[in-house]
From TrEMBL:
Organismal lineage: Bacteria, Bacillati, Actinomycetota, Actinomycetes, Propionibacteriales
Lineage top rank: taxon: Bacteria
Listed name of the protein: ComEC/Rec2 family competence protein
SMART domains, sorted: Lactamase_B
Pfam families: Competence, Lactamase_B
Membrane topology designation: Multi-pass membrane protein
Transmembrane segments: 24-40, 52-72, 234-256, 263-280, 286-302, 309-327, 362-383, 389-411, 418-439, 459-479
Places the protein is found: Cell membrane
Segments forming domain Metallo-beta-lactamase: 519-716
């Protein structure tokens, strides 16, 4: 069965990678089993050869079946009637069923509501077509109220879709409700609401974490806490995973045994529990995958669990890929399979080694998260570029409260519907448990070396795989002896708690660093030993936090957020985490409104005052002299709210550090650049932060007039905007400016040597 699971996965990946060769793959795959069986028959009557031939034929059949389904479903998405209308950008009217909860997403200039629909009828150009296709709606606030399972009618313009949907419906009209959700969907919604009500009086982290832990409802989760969960390897607790199902259904089975339920009736209780969990957490592919892996985990708890679970894992992979071939390319599916396989294959050996000198229950508590973490480490590094050094310890510390938190949260959500006071007491207990989980995540992420940066190239990942294999081979021998185990724990503890210097970084004499935070801005001006002024925070809290950690920055007397777009402010929790922050200054134009409100809430939560950047005032912050030269003075204004006014309202700073004059330009566009050129005629600087990530829309005459010998561009690798524009780079280089790019070079520093400024990169 594990071989069949691997064959199914290989078939899905092959069909996805070479979709255009689908007919050829299907034809070739159909010949393989026949050729193998004929060859075996002609070779003689050897039972071993026949078994070998039958195995190869079965693997080929399974791979062929999954590859064929993947190819056909891909065609249905990309070549169907909706896809054709989407390529024509046609206006349509749809009748569909809501198949996902509404979620707020960044719509560029304003937040949008994303809802997935299963379309059953489309009307375009007077023609009605009945079909079954998935569409993603990007609508306004009117779509926030739609319910899962509800039948709706709406109009809008189609655009090409991706990630398994045939089209996007943009500019969607207000949904017309045609039919309410079925009874089971309404019941699941009531229970989810009950879980939220049971913890309504708890602190914000607990209000968000209990629903996330019980049913995957993570809409209210703080981005900073979410980043801490990623750093400490606890993300699986905030998403729907096999662990959630194992705990919920395991509790139901224990309860059923107390009620003297035995035999096949227990199987019925387990099956009903799995179905109820899927309804509660939503029938999305990720939930079905998690439920299946949780069922495998339940099998592993029984007699002969290792062999039964391994066979069940192979069968689960085959069935899941036959039902939903698109799972083959998702990170969640791969992590679930690897974690389950690690627990089944590696866990017993680690447990037996530890059980030689510690209680068996304690050995199992350590072995299970360790086995899962080792199995998933290469893939996690490929996704995040990091290897967590505290994941096993963090999972071990939270393990005693995960079960009680999940069960108390679920039971509290049910009881609060009939006995609110009792439900609130149960919710208090669930909140106390997740409070400990949040504390472990925050404290673990604040450790100096909680995670280790790791490359995502083939050579780096291959090295990591080799190291993990060596660790698996060596670990049982090391863990079998208490002295060697404690010595390894001590070494790991020192490595995590003591910050090790990055060789050659930060470079001596640095005055400015443009952090590699992806598609966004985060710039650091050195104001003293361990101290810096931070201008913008990028889109990702761990990325900016890692950059500040590498620079040894423990105190930030001033944070300036040039404007409120997500790629400049979403990383603010990474700046605030574990550092003394004095003041946050922002643009006076509070646009987009969601970004400005987010900054206010995060600053208030960290007890850091926030205010508008003062125009024209020259200030000294440690070794940094700073002056805001744009926008012109005026009152704080709300702006249109959709983000369209944000770029030209960016705070532009003229700074001087170590005798180097630096112009930090935010995302100002050509109109504001022209006005700034007239306001500051004859301005010359040593370093230019190129506006708007190197967009092609620039006032080149003004940029060249600055005569900056050095420039830095902060942009994300392989971004969809074409930043930085080649024409802009050519113009700067023709003007004699050396350009440093975070998308190609990682962190870029400006250093001063013998009175001269030059660029230095970390990579």
């Amino acid at each position: 069965m594990p071989l069949l699971g691997a064959a199914a996965w290989a078939g899905a990946l092959a069909a996805t990678a070479w979709g255009g060769l689908g007919p050829a793959l299907v034809g070739l795959g159909a010949l393989v089993p026949a050729i193998v069986l004929v060859a075996a028959r002609r070779a003689g009557r050897s039972d071993g050869l026949r078994r070998w031939a039958a195995t190869v034929a079965a693997l080929a059949v399974v791979a062929l079946a999954v590859a064929s389904l993947t190819w056909v479903r891909g065609l249905a998405v990309t070549e169907g009637p909706l896809a054709e209308l989407a390529h024509e950008r046609a206006r349509v009217e749809l009748v569909a069923t809501v198949v996902s909860d509404p979620r707020q997403v960044d719509g560029g200039f304003e937040p949008r509501t994303a809802v997935r629909l299963q379309v059953t009828e489309v009307t375009a150009r007077g023609v009605v077509v009945r079909l079954r296709s998935a569409v993603l709606v990007l609508g306004d606030d009117a779509w926030r109220g739609v319910e899962l399972g509800e039948r709706v009618r709406a109009g809008g313009r189609l655009a090409p879709g991706d990630r398994g949907v045939s089209a996007l419906l943009t500019g969607a009209t207000e949904p017309e409700r045609l039919a309410r959700p079925d009874l089971w969907w309404r019941g699941a919604a009531v229970v989810r609401q009950g879980i939220r009500e049971a913890v309504a009086g708890r602190p914000a982290d607990q209000r968000a974490l209990v629903p996330a832990l019980v049913d995957g409802d993570d809409a209210a989760l703080d981005p900073g806490l979410e980043a801490d969960f990623r750093t400490t390897g606890l993300t699986h607790l905030t998403a729907v995973s096999g662990t959630n199902l194992t705990l919920v259904v395991g509790f139901l089975l224990v309860l059923a045994r107390w009620c003297r339920v035995r035999g096949r009736w227990l199987l019925l209780v387990g099956a009903l529990g799995i179905c109820g969990f899927v309804l509660l957490a939503r029938t999305e592919p990720s939930v079905v995958r998690a439920a299946t892996m949780g069922a495998v985990g339940l099998l592993a708890l029984g007699s002969n669990g290792r062999h039964r679970a391994l066979r069940a894992l192979g069968l689960a992979v085959v069935v899941l890929l036959l039902v939903q071939p698109a799972l083959a390319t998702t990170a969640g599916f791969a992590l679930s399979v690897l974690a389950t396989a690690g627990i089944v294959l590696l866990g017993p050996g680690l447990r037996d080694a530890l059980a030689r000198w510690m209680p068996r229950w304690c050995a199992e508590a350590v072995a299970v998260p360790a086995a899962a973490q080792v199995a998933c480490t290469p893939l996690v590094a490929a996704i995040s570029g990091e290897v967590s050094l505290v994941a096993v310890v963090a999972n071990l510390l939270v393990a005693p409260v995960v079960g009680p938190a999940t069960v108390l949260g679920l039971v509290g959500g049910l009881v609060v519907l009939v006995l609110p006071p009792v439900g609130l007491v149960l919710g208090w207990g669930a909140g106390a448990c997740v409070g400990w989980i949040a504390a472990v995540a925050r404290r673990g992420a604040d450790l100096p070396a909680a995670s280790l940066g790791w490359g995502t190239g083939p050579a780096s990942l291959l090295l990591l795989v080799v190291l993990c294999v060596l660790l698996v081979l060596v670990a049982p021998r090391v863990l079998a002896r208490p002295r060697s185990t404690l010595l390894c724990c001590a070494v790991l503890g020192v490595a995590v708690c003591v910050r090790l210097p990055t060789p050659g970084w930060p470079p001596p004499g640095w005055v400015l660093v443009a952090c590699d935070v992806g598609q966004g801005d985060a710039l650091v001006l050195r104001s003293g030993p361990g101290s810096a002024v931070v201008v913008d925070a990028g889109p990702d809290p761990p990325a900016v936090e890692g950059c500040l950690d590498r620079l040894g920055v423990t105190e930030v007397p001033l944070v300036v957020l040039t404007h409120f777009h997500a790629d400049h402010v979403d990383g603010l929790p990474g700046v605030l985490a574990g550092r003394r922050v004095g003041l946050v200054e922002t643009s006076r134009t509070l646009d987009p409104s969601a970004g400005s409100q987010q900054v206010r809430e995060q600053s208030a939560a960290a007890a850091v005052p926030a205010s508008a950047a003062p125009y024209g005032t020259t200030r000294t912050v440690g070794e940094v002299r700073l002056q805001a030269v744009w926008p012109r003075p005026g009152p704080v204004v709300a702006g249109p709210g959709d983000g369209s006014a944000a770029n030209d309202a960016s705070v532009v700073l003229l700074a001087e550090v170590g005798g180097v004059r630096i112009l930090l330009t935010g995302d100002i566009e050509p109109p504001s650049q022209a006005l700034l050129a007239r306001a500051l005629p004859g301005l010359h600087v040593d370093v230019l932060k190129v506006p708007h990530h190197g967009s092609r829309y620039q006032d080149l005459d003004w940029l060249e007039s600055l005569e900056a010998p050095l420039a830095v561009v902060s942009a994300g690798a392989d971004n969809d905007y074409g930043h930085p524009a080649p024409d802009l780079l050519d113009a700067l280089e023709d003007a004699g400016t050396e350009v440093g790019r975070t998308d190609e070079q990682g962190d870029v520093a400006v250093v001063v040597e013998a009175g001269e400024a030059r660029l230095v990169t970390r990579d």
